[in-house]
Design brief:
single chain; mainly alpha; Ferritin; 5 helices; 75% helix; elongated; binds fe (ii) ion
Length: 179
Amino acid sequence: MSLAKQNFSNVVEDAINQQVMLEMTASQTYLAIAAYMGSDNVALPGLEKFFNEQSEEEREHAQHLIDYQNKRGGLAVIPSVPAPTSEWASAKNAVESALQLEKDVNKNLLRMESLAEDEHDPQMVNVLRSKYLKEQVDSIAEIAKLMTQLNRGGGEGLGLYLFDQTLLKSGVKGVIGQV
Ligand SMILES: [Fe+2]
């Protein structure tokens, strides 16, 4: 029994482990998208770099949740995650699937927040509201705008090349501005 544990329900403890699983799944999926973008017949270095960074960011989210689980006296369970797809129909299709993934993660964060409220756990609610829900909405807006810019250029040929080169040289803020 943890010495630190106070006002921390099993329901919230399980939900944190579930969220770790989702963050790790997102991390692995972004790693797979980055590998796809870096393959010789796709060769989009801007998107490759972007998704490698996204993958690391998701891994950091999982780490933060593991640290939080320990802080509260819960048991961090490190999950095995399902293997992501390794091929997409197009760059546009891969970015679309990333947007859907971010929305799925957001859905689970919202579910966690109401769960933590039901369990009268204001610390958990605070962590979710101040960090996770904010960052998640920012990520959704960022990928949505990236998607719009990709579509604006036509999503292939020269438009895609220019989009990717801008992403490579100026980063995501250079393509979409601040979110
Ligand atoms: Fe995340």
